[in-house]
Design goal:
Distance between the termini: 28 Å
Number of domains: 1
Radius of gyration: 19 Å
CATH class: Alpha Beta
Shape: globular
CATH architecture: 5-stranded Propeller
Strand content: 25-35%
Number of strands: 21
Order of helices and strands: EEEEHEHEHEEHHEEEHHEEEHEEEEEHEE
CATH superfamily: L-arginine/glycine Amidinotransferase, Chain A
Structural class: alpha/beta
Strand order of the largest sheet: 3-7-8-9
């Protein structure tokens, strides 16, 4: 098969791989250390402290790989994370922290014994921001994993990566691990991403590269202030097969209310790859909040499921913060919901799911 930057351009499915759910066991989480002050104008000072808390929390339950970003940021990450166990800092350049979107989508072989990855094309949400280093980071992450020298018993490398020609971001893709994928047309079908792609071609590529059998186009929803063209991880998330949490507005006066209500109705009418209707649980967003005169896209759907824990963003509005934490804890009793203040972090227009990427554990 032809290769591109160390990755085959063949089908991940034909090679025996599938995309697994976020709640399956992790080997590690990957994050990118913050260094771009332009992402949080006027509020950057607190951002490394938030990232430190996230890394140290995750490192209690799984290994954490940190991309340094720049030489200066790498040095800062080492200082902030001094003494932390289960943390590896890599000298990999980045433009920003949103590794969910520019990093690889990790896969597992069907027997669970081999790690794989799909590498999408990344153009910073339709060319909105500089992204040359982010676009190159996915290949470097895969190179780190393949260069660890691990071989299977037959001498084959313990990881394969697959390069797709589709422009996509991880935050725009959500799976139940059983063949169902949720996404939005406004993201994947945007002319600034995949101008010559039809919906049918995109579905075929997602099936070829992730092993999904059905794509649910969850259209209609949107968050004011969002710059991703409505990533699904801000709007609706699987908790387990057949169960979805979906963002709804705190008040009917919110400009998001009508769109989120329409999205919820669409979800109620959908079935997953197994033909099951979806059980939809609302996650109420906080009332509208402005930073420096601009609306920020606050959503509790931007949580991250790790081994034994769930990291959930809070936004400083106690009523909805507590409500969302209680709902997620009830829905995932086997994990502990840990809340981290994202009231400054969200000024970068993303939260903790956007800033993480899970690497599933392989069977030993």
């Amino acid at each position: 098969m032809p290769e591109k930057d160390g990755a085959t351009t063949g089908s991940a499915v034909d090679a025996g791989y599938r995309w697994v759910a976020e709640w399956e066991r992790h080997e590690a989480t990957w994050i990118s250390w913050p260094h771009n002050a332009n992402t949080w104008p006027g509020k950057f000072t607190n951002i490394p402290h938030v990232s430190e808390k996230m890394v140290r929390t995750l490192a209690e339950v799984e290994h954490v790989h940190v991309l340094g970003g720049t030489p200066e940021a790498t040095a800062q990450a080492k200082a902030f994370l001094s003494g932390a166990k289960n943390v590896t800092i890599h000298d990999i350049e980045t433009n920003d922290v949103w590794i969910r979107d520019f990093g690889p989508t990790f896969l597992l072989s069907n027997d669970g014994k081999k790690l794989g990855a799909t590498r999408w094309r990344f153009n910073a949400w339709g060319g909105k921001y500089p992204h040359e280093r982010d676009a190159a980071a996915s290949a470097k992450i895969c190179s780190v994993l393949t260069s660890q020298g691990k071989l299977l018993s037959d001498g084959e490398p313990a990881m394969d990566s697959f390069a797709s020609s589709l422009v996509a971001e991880g935050g725009g893709l959500e799976t139940d691990g059983q063949g169902t994928l949720m996404s939005t047309s406004s993201c994947l079908l945007a002319s600034t991403r995949n101008f010559h792609w039809t919906r049918e071609l995109i579905e075929a590529e997602l099936m070829r590269m992730l092993g999904v059998r059905k794509v649910l186009w969850v259209d209609g929803g949107a968050l004011a202030g969002d710059d991703t063209d409505s990533h699904i991880d801000q709007l609706a998330r699987f908790i387990r097969p057949g169960l979805v949490v979906a963002a709804v507005s705190y008040s009917s006066n919110d400009s998001n209310a009508e769109k989120l209500s329409l999205q919820r109705q669409h979800l109620i009418e959908m079935t997953d790859a197994a033909g099951r209707p979806l059980d939809i649980v609302p996650l109420t967003t906080p009332p509208p909040r402005l930073i420096q005169g601009k609306r920020v896209p606050e959503s509790y759907c931007n949580f991250y499921i790790a081994n034994e824990i769930v990291i959930m963003p809070t936004f400083g509005f106690r009523e909805t913060d507590d409500l969302a934490a209680g709902i997620l804890q009830d829905l995932m009793p086997e994990r502990r919901v840990i809340c981290i203040d994202a009231s400054d972090f969200i000024w970068g227009l993303g939260a903790f799911h956007c800033a993480t990427q899970q690497q599933p554990a392989v069977k030993v």
